Protein 1
Amino acid sequence: MFDRTETAIDEPHAIRVMGAPFDGTVSFRPGARFGPEAIRAASDGLETWSPVLDLDLQDVSYADAGDLELPMGDVPAALALIREAARRALEHGAVPFLLGGEHLVSLPAIEAVHERYSDLVVVQLDAHADQREHYLGVRLSHACVMRRVAELTGLERIRQLGIRSGTREEYALMREHGTLSTFRQQDLAGLRAWIGGRPLYLSVDLDVFDPGCFPGTGTPEPGGIDWWTFQRFLQAIAGCRIVGLDVVELAPQLDASGCSSVLAAKCVREMLLCAQMGAGHA
Ligand code: MN
Ligand code: MN
């Protein structure tokens, strides 16, 4: 489904897909570095048309830049390479769409997008708050990624959905700043109104899904959403001005059935279609 020909990025395109196969800071089970490759392989089994959005990938202007080569043992160097790649996409007028990798890869992409759009808002789907000040003394960890993002944007420009795990301190912080929202229909309508015409970065940590339908992830957390909840979320934000997006934390080898990779690929398809719908006013 996704085009791997790297020559495609020489042609004009609205959305640039790129793999960030990095899992150097994961706190529990590794394997997210194999995510991008598994998403591409699984995408071959999916249709290009979305019955819900009534759109086809063939009508989306996107290119796949392939995977970045990232040094697993050097976190700042890996993040710098991702930041540069996102900047290059933006310079070419393309919306960066990152395939993780662990959730920390979102940080440099959001930094690059925020350089261009100072009024950026960020919507995070995740089981985990990712609002720790540090994790075992490390500030650049997937467990701290949204706290680092908040240092850029301020917590008032972040909304978090699906969160069901965190520390007492993280929950106190999120409640104080009102970042938490839900997938209830009225809250989705409220989220859409809150985003308004502002540029949106959408970060989907796939462990927001229930481990029953998405076991292939490093830090599974019971009590997650199903596919149709995710689809309702996307319908609610369709038409928003999406200027950056990512799908992270697929660890394909932790799900021998391969269904987690298929779900991730379907997320990517629907998010590409959604981003295209909002591209008119990017
Ligand atoms: Mn996360
Ligand atoms: Mn998570």
Note: The first helix runs from residue 35 to 43.
Protein 2
Amino acid sequence: MLVLGIESSCDECAAAVVQDGRLVRSTQVATQISIHAPYGGVVPELASRDHLRRISLIIAGAVEKAGIEISGLDAIAVTCGPGLQGSLLIGTMAARTLAWALGCPLVGVNHLEAHLHAAFLEQKQPQYPFLGLVVSGGHTSLFEVRGVGRLKLLGRTLDDAAGEALDKVAKLLGLPYPGGVWIERQAAGGNPDAVPFPRPMRGRGLDFSFSGLKTAACQAVRNRGAPQGQDLSDFAASFQKCVVETLVAKTITALKKHRLARLVVAGGVAANRLLRERMSQEAKAAGAEIFIPALSLCTDNAAMVAALGQAYLQAGRSSSPFELDADASLPWNAISL
Ligand code: KG4
Ligand code: ZN
């Protein structure tokens, strides 16, 4: 079965063809980094306009790279939320139109669940149940995942997402967008213990909070001026370490508390090398098996959408091309089985 996945929830316009929910036949991602870079963050209006310009070509490119005709598609899966409403509308409208024209099944999926499902595109697949940490620009959430569409929220950020904090602090430091990537680059060669940032929400259940940490970083810059040279590397390394330690500590607590033996870490921030290393070490020490998708499957992509779409279709779920709606604040449990 060949499923076309479409992803346009934020600033990546992506399409992919996945065979049988496992084999990525093609994956196309058009990033909008250069469009949003001058503003230090995603400008929703510019994002949706660019999706509109590119989506047809991205879809055509994914179909061509898969070596098939568009009529060879068996189904279409699309992210219908959460995300930016204007951006989501472009992807969902493209998916609805195509499904109607081809007369093939259509299925809408949740972006957060799709991030976690990226783990199923790797050689070694997780088994249910597992603990899932989605850590991205818009979300920092811990789920107990019992099966496809069967997620239980265990904890989430009460304010900023981890990626959002990284992006905002990077902007403050004069680093380019997207900030998480540049904080990581700048942190290389820095002393991670140079700046004593507070460890947020330690011991306060499984919820996260990153806004206090962000404020501490702002105050440090205000008091001492924007760091330069080695000081900048030290600052970035210390900030990165603090974010990573916070994510790792809560996740390991959740593993133990809920007695889960497997952990999946996904979303854009899961591309961070320090997070991957530290999480792997700590999960192993806690006796859990860890699954972190390859870097290109951590950041926004459509292969994860196609793979999850296939799982939903197999479970007998599909959406009407006349009714599928984009929902900017789609709850994590709105699509369940
Ligand atoms: O999943 P994603 O591509 O889009 C959302 O759904 O939000 O995540 C984007 C986030 C941004 O905040 C970006 O700064 C962060 O992921 N990110 C990273 C790295 N690569 C992307 N953060 C830390 N280290 C990285 N290597
Ligand atoms: Zn994402």
Note: Residues 111, 115, 136, 267-268, 300 surround zinc ion (ligand 2) (CB under 6 Å).
